[in-house]
Specification:
Number of domains: 2
Number of strands: 6
Helix content: 10-25%
Largest sheet: 3 strands, mixed
Strand content: 15-25%
CATH class of the largest domain: Alpha Beta
Strand order of the largest sheet: 1-2-3
Length: 165
């Protein structure tokens, strides 16, 4: 069994997308620390964008799944921490570029009063169990089950939906 490095873990986590903003958890600034023990157990310290994140469990499961993709990992522990609190400034420069940070007033340029999303495209499940949403232009986007569930609700008929907290 080879030695697992924190660099390998972070590389794998760069494929784990935040379920609400299409940026990986590393560039999003959610990973606060990676520790690999001598027996290749990986301890992750991470945070969420908000304490009441409705996709908390989904994101933790996704992080564990991606860490387990690194050859040699014997176990994964994810600890959620709240200090220091997450802010958009925690994002990497690459992450900020992806959302055009600082050049617009809101992160997602969606008008939620008039947006009428259409669940158009298809879902593909990869060999490792990860999900890909493929649009009409055959572009693939890594997603998780929560996003797929929301996508299935998008029928183009409802706007200004109130979400339960």
């Amino acid at each position: 069994m080879g030695t697992v490095t924190s660099h390998q873990v972070l590389d794998s986590l760069k494929q784990c997308m935040d379920p609400e903003i299409p940026i990986n958890v590393v560039d999003m600034g959610l990973i606060y620390g990676v520790n690999v023990t001598d027996d290749n157990k990986v301890d992750i310290k991470m945070t969420m964008t908000t304490r009441g994140c409705p996709l908390h469990d989904t994101l933790v499961s996704d992080v564990k799944r991606y860490v387990n993709k690194v050859p040699g990992v014997s176990a994964v522990n994810v600890e959620i921490v709240w200090e220091p609190a997450w802010t958009p400034e925690k994002m990497s420069e690459e992450g900020k570029k992806l959302i055009n940070y600082g050049k617009q007033k809101i992160i997602t340029p969606i008008n939620y009063e008039t947006a009428m999303p259409h669940g158009v495209g298809k879902v593909a499940k990869q060999e490792d169990g990860s999900l890909v949403l493929i649009n009409e232009q055959e572009q693939g986007f890594m997603v998780n089950q929560a996003i797929i569930d929301f996508w299935k609700l998008c029928n183009g008929e409802v706007s200004n939906v109130e979400f339960k907290k």
